Amino acid sequence: MSTPAPKSTPGDMASFNILHGFPEALVRGMRSSFLADADYHHLTQCETLDDVRLNLSETDYADALADMNTLIPTGLQKAAVEKLVTEFQYLRTQAIEPLSTFLDFITYEYMIENVMLLLKGTLSGRDINELIAQCHPLGMFKESTMRSIPTFESTPRGYQDLYQTVLVDTPVGPYFSLFLQETAGRGEVSNVLEEVEIEIIKSSLIKYWIEDFAKFVDALGGETATIMGDLLKVRADTNAINITLNSFGTPLNEPAMRASDRKRLYPALGHLYPAGTSMLADVGDEDELGRVLELFPQYSSIWNVHAAGGSDGKSIDDAFYERDVQMLELAFEGQMHFGSFYAYVKLKEQEIRNLVWVSECILQQQKEEIHKFVPVFSFNAPWRAGSKKHGR
User: Which end of the chain is less crowded, N or C, counting CB atoms within 10 A of the terminal residue's CB?
Assistant: First the structure.
């Protein structure tokens, strides 16, 4: 009896370069497009947005801004996002399985955000063209699908029809189905979409996406499972902490809803899961949340930033961004795995946030706030500055 051939993984040295070497080479080459420390220095010295545009004309954003007569923060953000989408779509056209499915998983998050934006806008009666313009390009459906979402009535039956005729055929349809099944299984009436706040629905869908993505990368095995698994665990923990923090002062923080509604929003993975998330379900204020996070060294320092009340100019979001950038940069250090594709998209998002922040500070003449951003691949990053002090 012959021994079956071992199952190859995306980190298999014998086949990775044959199957995925070209798109990986592309994404690693795109790393050179990130703004350097010198670019950020020049941008922070600008006095007007015209100066910003002039400085960006010498970077990878030159072509994206070439046709822009007047630079404004929203226009800069739109151009930068479109540039990222173009690059991502090119990577997607060069990918084969299982990388192509991996890249599709990245877009599902933006699809969820777009669906929630359209649903929320429908409830408030906003114009469909305005809503579609605000949707993220990486999460777009067919235009007919996008335009059909607001046409359903804001009634329980209308939302049921919305799912059965539109969302069921989208990649995020299974997550929506899981949400409806879970709420129905808890004995709730069928009009949950009308009664539950949109943000709670969004948190549920993101939870299902994280769990599904984690199962996919775990099945891939190899370095992809190791690196992406850790990135998704941290993402799950971040969601759990933010959901808990944002619930204070809302009905979700009522004792009867903590263990039922709030706890089920926590992803079933992460460094906090299951012991930490069980404790998070019982906390009722920030002091109790802080005592729980002190038990987890990787999050106690982040919580201390929040507890300090931003005395050093940082918020808890800034602390999360710094931690994310450090982990995402490390994803580029390994080879023969898919984590670099995910890292590239998320690091580019951070760079776009940086550009918008700098341009807003210049526009509003708040130059004293202009340095409050998190540069990407910076030699002056705290984690690199610390190593240089020790001569490493």
Answer: N
